[in-house]
Amino acid sequence: MAAHHLILLLLALIALSSSPAAFAADPNQLQDFCVADTNSNRNTANRLGSNVTLVFAQQFPGLNTLGVAGARLDFAAGGVNPPHTHPRATELLVVIKGTLYAGFVASTNKLYTKVLYEGDAFIFPQGLIHFQFNIGKTDAVAWASFGSQNPGRVDIANAVFGAKPPVSLYLLEKSFQLDEKTVELLQAKLWITNS
Ligand SMILES: *[C@@H]1O[C@H](CO)[C@@H](O)[C@H](O)[C@H]1NC(C)=O
Hints:
The structure is a single chain. The protein is of the alpha+beta class. The protein folds into two domains: 14-152, Sandwich (Jelly Rolls); 155-195, no CATH class. Helices cover 21% and strands 29% of the residues. Helix 3 (169-176) crosses helix 4. The N and C termini lie far apart (74 Å). The protein binds 2-acetamido-2-deoxy-beta-D-glucopyranose. The site of 2-acetamido-2-deoxy-beta-D-glucopyranose has 5 residues, from loops. This is Germin-like protein. Oxalate binds at residues 81, 86, 91. Keywords: Apoplast, Disulfide bond, Manganese, Metal-binding, Secreted, Signal. Residues 1-24 form the signal peptide.
């Protein structure tokens, strides 16, 4: 009788250990280690006067499955991070050095702006058009954190006037109250990105 019970117990243990319930937890999310160098200054000698170093899952595979991402923003004096959106993430910006004028346009078309000093934080809600501008006399550095491992970035001017193939000339004339020549001029420009 005792031996019979022991066999049943063993069978139960084997069944338990091989059942999916025993492995119900998510696998460990830590898949990789990588170090982002945020010390050395980035080159801001481009037309925008800014350099955005994306730390998204594509650049930093350690972020895979973790649902967060970051970016380092470097500005020359007078440099701008032009109007853009992140289709998949809200952004929390913290100024590390310098003075930035930052803002976003809400879906009501109301503009929210703030002058940010070292240590200040600002939020850009997911999908809304936003920008930063170094209004100080020195370089500025900021760090951005995102609530997605892959926030995406759409630069407004590049998307509207730099799309390939180009968006219809007629449609842009009507939409932006511009004449044909002005739209052609805008479409002929080289729309660079700072990231
Ligand atoms: C940003 O800075 C890095 C390092 O200095 C440089 O290699 C890169 O070309 C710069 N990007 C832009 C858009 O200027």
